[in-house]
Please model this.
Amino acid sequence: MSAAEDTLERQDQLQGIGCSRKRKEDPRFIQGKGNYVDDVKLPGMLCGAIVRSPFAHAKIVSINKEKALALPGVHAVITADDLKPLGLHWMPTLAGDTQAVLADEKVAFQQQEVAMVVADDRYIAADGAELVEVEYEVLPALVDPHKAMDDDAPIIRDDLVGKDEAGQGKRTHNNHIFTWDVGDKDATDRAFDNAEVTVREEILNPRVHPSPLETCGCVASFDKINGALTVYITSQAPHIVRTVITLLSGIAESKVRVISPDIGGGFGNKVGVYPGYVVAIVSSIVLGRPVKWIESRIDNISTTAFARDYHGIGELAADKNGVIKALRFSALADHGAFNAHAQPTKWPAGLFSICTGSYDIPVAYARVDGVYTNKAPGGVAYRCSFRVTEAVYLIERMIDVLAQKLDIDKAEIRRRNFIKAEQFPYQSALGWEYDSGNYLPALEKVLEACDYEGLRKEQAEKRAKGELMGIGLCTFTEIVGAGPSKACDVLGVGMFDSCEIRVHPTGSAIARMGTITQGQGHQTTYAQIIASELGLSSDDIQIEEGDTDTAPYGLGTYGSRSTPVGGAATAMAARTIRAKAQKIAAHLLEVSPDDVEWDVDRFQVKGNPDAVKTMKEVAWAAYNNVPEGMEMGLETVNYYDPPNFTYPFGIYLCVVDIDRHTGETSIRRFYALDDCGNRINPMIIEGQIHGGLNEAFAVAMGQLISFDEDGNLQGNSLMDYFIPTFVETPHWETDYTVTPSPHHPLGAKGVAESPHVGGIPCFSNAVIDAFAHKGVTHVNMPHTAFNVWKTIHQLGLDN
Amino acid sequence: MAKTQLSFNLNGQDVDVLVEPRELLIHVLREQLMQTGAHIGCETSHCGACTVDINGQSVKSCTFLAVQAQGAEVMTVEGLASGGELHPLQAAFMEEHGLQCGFCTPGMLMRGYRFLQENPNPSEDDIRQGMAGNLCRCTGYQNIIKSIQKAAADINAADNA
Model:
């Protein structure tokens, strides 16, 4: 065997970075041995069921618990009045607002939490909830955010009357939460005044819900003897939950243990702290027994964290050649009854300012106004970084609108506006420094793979015959990996992440991170990183996350931050270990550390391939034979504060055929090229892209949380709320380019949210492109058959 | 509430439990018999995470009264592997990356197990139709389809060997 073959074989044996090794988490899941929160069963455990408001807006006149308390098996009925003496009837939100844990004198959205019945089992708890008698005095409901700041609008938040701020700066109306803006308004206005061409469009990102297949829930268990609290919880951010519990309860953080077990999908739904968790914890403390609270699907869709509800206005100014000169975007953000937007503290509109997208736009201005309405609280990032879907949707729609106005091909207008490869690192007009990108070759690759010119010819022929065919392009840039602590914190905690690695004497290792997998395959991917960095097989590297007693503090998994931040911490921790290992190896080989070099899984004396010590040999020596003055052991912890965000990008193309009689849209082709920098496990990346595209398909084509004028939620089970099945889900084609991040230790960028962010506008662009020749520039999502038929019918195309 | 004696066969073993007439099979399986593989995702028969096999049929156990299983042969994902060997479907899901968070997986496997007996040589479209009662939020279905195709090929190859 040649030296090169030997090196390759040793690399293959590691199953490290770049290989599509099978997932380490799969054996338990395929055998029914996952451990999700509802699988947790503790001795003496009780169950909680929540009594919810049937009205969107009402005063609570009285609550009568007597019948419920009389039911055998019911242990407690808890209301706001019970929480008041503890100061726990309201709780802080991630957005600087407060939220009623249980309704305090009034309800402000339908299905709001009014009381919790705690009983021996879930059946008795549900019976008890039926027996709680609540008398309401119904108030007028505010549903339309555009009417929120009318003079005569009903006041949603009596607790804030007379207060000129709600945690995010000045407010000007009782239903106003914040105004946030960024960019050079005057220069932007001047550019619009002087522009050869301007376009403007009102564009809605409707209210939707992430709906992971597992709903939210927890099991709270308070140990009265030791004053210690353990909470099993479906949380994407267990460490922050622990801090919040301490801040709310006063229990020392060292006596609070939060465990995120296996999580059945998160997609942003499991970032926040919800009333059910708080009441379950209080119940357990009061009753001295473990209390489980698990949402029903209806609870989940109705109450725990919607996404979007961004009512945008997009404007572009350009020259006659379609070169964009300025961008002016605004949005009215409906945050519901409490501002429970999931965000880094200082970002009331999240990272919306990424809205200049992949284009070199000299001047821009963006503004978002947040308002209260009588709807469930939230504003979470549904499979995206904070408000990035809303931003990307606006720019990717608007560039199509501009192309249509100027009659320029939709691929060509992107070529004319792309940030060029030589401009990176690129400073955007709204303040971001894009780390790396190479958009044009990726676009050309996709256009060629799909025969874009041929598709446009076919479309022209079909249009001549009265048939509807659309071609959608989306050339997006994401911003993920929150984030640098100088810019990002959650409740004052910087958004670093962490990894602790311990290498055992016989050369296997355990590593723990502050992130938490929800299907992304962390147990595999992180093991691959360590395998390549330390030269140990990924089979022998155990990854643990989610237990705050054992894992180092981290901010969790959302906003595609695991690989950009947690993955970087993992690489840096491994490198610290390797640096120590190098000194031990040199000691064993009786040379200076500068005289040994790393070779896949071993240290070798430079120029002497026979003088080697493998990492396994070094690991053994770390526990019995280290250089004089060195501590024994081979372990470290790294807290990684990223110098910047990462900026993955993608080029997507979608072809649709629309039935002009039924409005049904058939997705003929969806081609997704993603560039997430260096790729750790291509199999997992492809799987993430499939899933993200499917969630994009769901949002673009069918998902909608809608209300009638009284604030009644119109459909909150899977009977009504659209989750694509096998039947309607399209076939996905994937492709990639690699443009490494220059500041990430592995050159990686994060990927799982790109397909959702880029996929939604791509579907919309395809559907709307089918009507472009009829002068249609925009139609709001979701593009259900009925909605598309309405467009067809208005245009008279069904005759 | 008065309880009823319920006896059935679960994964090859006879079991006897006391249940309320209103109790759903999923709760009895998960909370009394501690077979937590089948999951609750929607409680309305839409998502299929609770799918088990009863007397040779796929059943969504979240809307099936436990007492309806009196005397039945019930199989859950815990009974799919035998003799220390994974079922070809389980192996194929791992091989083709047919799962991510794992929550829908037991239901997918149990529906796939019955589906491949109903149709041992399915086309992609057959799989899309035959599996349509099981939802997945993570995978976009494509790799589940590949998993079922691989399992079908592996089962057929073993049968012909």
